[in-house]
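yo, Molybdenum-pterin-binding protein MopA is done. seq:
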Amino acid sequence: MLGPGKADLLERIGQTGSIAAAGRSMSMSYKRAWMLVETMNAAFREPLIESSRGGAKGGGARLTEAGAEVLSNYRKLEEIMAEAGAARIGAIQSMLRDIPDGK
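structure:
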């Protein structure tokens, strides 16, 4: 239904007002971005993104109230999981190899 990539796409659509621009900022094709938007809109009772045609001369996209609420709840859930899982994340990180230059 919603994961980190879709949440990032929602956030960037909200920031840019464009599905194409949001996708480009994530190195994602326009077709892929549209497919994800359609999938999210179909999964929820209310659409998360509304769009209008018009291309460079007036089209665009925006988060609906439901979209903003879903994104806000998802980001809060990420915070809760990071806090609750900090010890486990640290344990996993301690098992990683040292990588030169942080790559």
